[in-house]
Design a protein that fits this description.
Oligomer: single chain
Order of helices and strands: HHHHHHHHH
Strand content: under 5%
Radius of gyration: 19 Å
Distance between the termini: 40 Å
Largest sheet: none
Number of strands: 0
Number of helices: 9
Structural class: mainly alpha
Shape: globular
Length: 219
């Protein structure tokens, strides 16, 4: 029987990043136990969302931790996608992951800045703050599910494209579900500004990720 040599990219870097995510989750749970518990029950309970109105400043540290965790998890998943669909034998994984993390992190922070500026221009600071808090909370929560899937994708060999399509379906379904809940909670505000909200979705929720995809492909 002829031996077939199989090339694979070492997962040492991904292992370190996964451990870092787990460490940050432990830190978040230890520093903010009650907020973390409410956060993990986000889809089943609305308790976490009411924290925004009474503990805005106290939540800042927790939000920063969850943002970093989200950026790391999203970067892991994008890296795995790149390795699966573009370059299975990718070299210099550290540089590639750093590029992905930097590009995605810049995109997220830029979006938040632009959204806050828009809210300030149209004198909608409080409404935009509440909307962003809800959106980012759901985004961070979905990241936890994506993290579990990403671990499986990182350490599994010979994965079919179906696994990635199913993951994409999971992300899309949970994202749509979260948006439905956000829309239901902000129905009055969105109805009054329906045209601007549709424009916002196209300009700041769809276009940036298309641009990010193009940048990664060209890199």
């Amino acid at each position: 029987m002829e031996i077939i040599e199989r090339y694979s990219t070492p997962n040492d870097l991904m292992t370190l990043v996964i451990l870092l995510v787990l460490l940050l989750l432990v830190i978040a749970k230890q520093l903010y136990p009650y907020r973390f518990e409410d956060f993990t029950a986000l889809f089943s309970s609305g308790k976490y969302m009411v924290i925004k109105s009474r503990e805005h400043k106290a939540l800042f540290g927790f939000n920063v931790l969850m943002l970093i965790i989200h950026l790391l998890i999203a970067s892991i998943f994008i890296f795995v996608l790149y390795r699966a669909f573009i370059d299975p034998e990718v070299q210099k994984t550290g540089i590639l992951f750093l590029r992905i993390f930097t590009a995605y992190g810049f995109l997220v922070l830029l979006k938040v800045t632009v959204e806050k500026i828009i809210g300030n221009i149209f004198d909608l600071d409080e409404a935009i703050e509440n909307y962003l808090f809800q959106k980012h909370s759901y985004r961070n929560f979905i990241s936890l599910g994506l993290f579990i899937i990403s671990i499986f994708l990182v350490y599994s060999s010979n994965l079919s494209k179906l696994a990635f399509y199913l993951t994409g379906a999971f992300i899309a379904a949970t994202w749509v579900f979260s948006y439905v809940r956000i829309l239901s909670k902000n129905q009055g505000f969105i109805t009054l500004n329906l045209f601007y909200f549709i424009l916002y979705l196209c300009a700041l929720e769809i276009a940036p990720y298309i641009i990010l995809y193009k940048l990664i492909i060209r890199s």
